[in-house]
């Protein structure tokens, strides 16, 4: 008997996740049978839940905050990029019973930029990354992978940026948080990976005067879609790319692995995620 494939997303809390609407939309678009279910799971239960789901017909799950690092201790096989980042967001439950962990956040980040700013040349100039948390690790790994010559990184807590420099190497230059505005002059790309600008959090305020008009500014925050940073960058004449596309694109490889078809990131997918 062929079982209907099940997938889902595990986090705590999980009610805010946009992934269920997105995957259900793609299942419908492709006329596929399947379900994608949000699961609110506490850290203490994570391992038991992950060992049980394959027996219930789950083909894999997405992992979100706060379990992305923890899941690395539970997975049997881990891709090199997930190891480098130190976190996973996608699990495949293999037929041999093994749990395979991957991280598609960096892929989502780059694909979103390619779609939103097709003229951006990664190899032409340094990129400025604001923040040095978990999200920044995926962004830095992806930028190095596409050949960015230098990454100027600035974080309120400087030691976290220095840790990234230790882990990712010489192409990273750490800049004091108070000096963050100064690093933008040379950058062809500015990325906010901090949580500043998220609904309920203060805005990220960096002086954009030095920024070249040809620069691309992107924010990982997607609620609101237009953060203060993006509005300021738009007013300065720069190309801006919002963070929703990263969420959509990171979901593509997982959907394809679980359900066998490569989904489209288009306006209908964006609308579904915002529903
Ligand atoms: P994530 O996995 O989403 O990156 P995180 O690891 O908690 O989450 O990192 C949050 C990022 O937002 C960090 O760069 C954090 O700076 P610190 O390392 O100094 O904590 C940044 N951040 C959060 N609140 C901030 C604030 N009020 N001012 C400046 N940076 C802030």
Automatic annotation (TrEMBL):
CDD domains in the cross-refs: NAD_bind_Shikimate_DH (cd01065)
InterPro entries (UniProt xref): Aminoacid_DH-like_N_sf, NAD(P)-bd_dom_sf, SDH_C, Shikimate_DH, Shikimate_DH-bd_N, Shikimate_DH_fam, Shikm_DH/Glu-tRNA_Rdtase
Uppermost EC category: oxidoreductase
SUPFAM superfamilies named among the record's database cross-references: Aminoacid dehydrogenase-like, N-terminal domain (SSF53223), NAD(P)-binding Rossmann-fold domains (SSF51735)
Transport in keyword set: no
Residues where shikimate binds: 17-19, 64, 89, 105, 222, 250
Binding site for NADP(+): 80, 131-135, 155-160, 220, 243
Residue ranges of every copy of the Shikimate dehydrogenase substrate binding N-terminal domain listed in the record: 9-91
Reaction it catalyzes: shikimate + NADP(+) = 3-dehydroshikimate + NADPH + H(+)
Entries under Gene3D superfamilies matching the protein: Leucine Dehydrogenase, chain A, domain 1 (3.40.50.10860), NAD(P)-binding Rossmann-like Domain (3.40.50.720)
Cellular component annotations (GO), alphabetically ordered: cytosol
Gene Ontology molecular-function annotations: NADP binding; shikimate 3-dehydrogenase (NADP+) activity
EC number(s) per entry: 1.1.1.25
The protein's annotated pathway: Metabolic intermediate biosynthesis; chorismate biosynthesis; chorismate from D-erythrose 4-phosphate and phosphoenolpyruvate: step 4/7
All copies of domain Quinate/shikimate 5-dehydrogenase/glutamyl-tRNA reductase, residue ranges: 125-195
Pfam families according to UniProt: SDH_C (PF18317), Shikimate_DH (PF01488), Shikimate_dh_N (PF08501)
Active site, per annotation: 68
Subunit note: Homodimer.
Matching NCBIfam families: aroE, PRK00258.1-4
Functional description taken from the UniProt entry: Involved in the biosynthesis of the chorismate, which leads to the biosynthesis of aromatic amino acids. Catalyzes the reversible NADPH linked reduction of 3-dehydroshikimate (DHSA) to yield shikimate (SA).
Name this protein carries in UniProt: Shikimate dehydrogenase (NADP(+))
Species whose genome carries this gene: Litorivita pollutaquae
Gene name as annotated: aroE
């Amino acid at each position: 008997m062929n079982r209907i494939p099940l997938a889902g997303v595990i986090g705590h809390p999980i009610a805010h996740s946009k992934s269920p609407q997105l995957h259900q939309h793609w299942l419908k678009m492709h006329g596929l049978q399947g379900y994608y279910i949000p699961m609110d799971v506490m850290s203490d239960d994570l391992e038991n839940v992950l060992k049980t789901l394959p027996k219930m017909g789950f083909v894999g799950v997405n992992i979100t905050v706060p379990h992305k690092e923890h899941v690395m201790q539970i997975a049997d096989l881990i891709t090199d990029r997930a190891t480098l980042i130190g976190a996973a967001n996608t699990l495949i439950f293999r037929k041999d019973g093994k749990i395979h962990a991957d991280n598609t956040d960096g892929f989502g980040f780059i694909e979103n930029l390619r779609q939103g700013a097709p003229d951006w040349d990664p190899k032409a100039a340094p990129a400025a990354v604001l923040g040095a948390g978990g999200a920044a690790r995926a962004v830095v790994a992806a930028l190095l992978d596409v050949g960015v010559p230098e990454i100027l990184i600035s974080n309120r807590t400087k030691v976290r940026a220095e840790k990234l420099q230790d882990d990712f190497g010489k192409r990273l230059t750490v800049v004091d948080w108070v000096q963050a505005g100064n690093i933008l002059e040379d950058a062809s790309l500015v990325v906010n990976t901090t949580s500043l600008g998220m609904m309920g959090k203060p805005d990220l305020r960096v002086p954009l005067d030095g920024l070249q008009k040809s620069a691309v500014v992107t924010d990982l925050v997607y609620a609101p879609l237009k953060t203060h940073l993006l509005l300021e960058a738009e007013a300065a004449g720069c190309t801006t790319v919002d963070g929703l596309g990263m969420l959509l694109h990171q979901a593509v490889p997982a959907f394809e692995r679980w359900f066998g078809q490569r989904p489209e990131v288009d306006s209908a997918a964006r609308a579904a995620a915002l529903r």
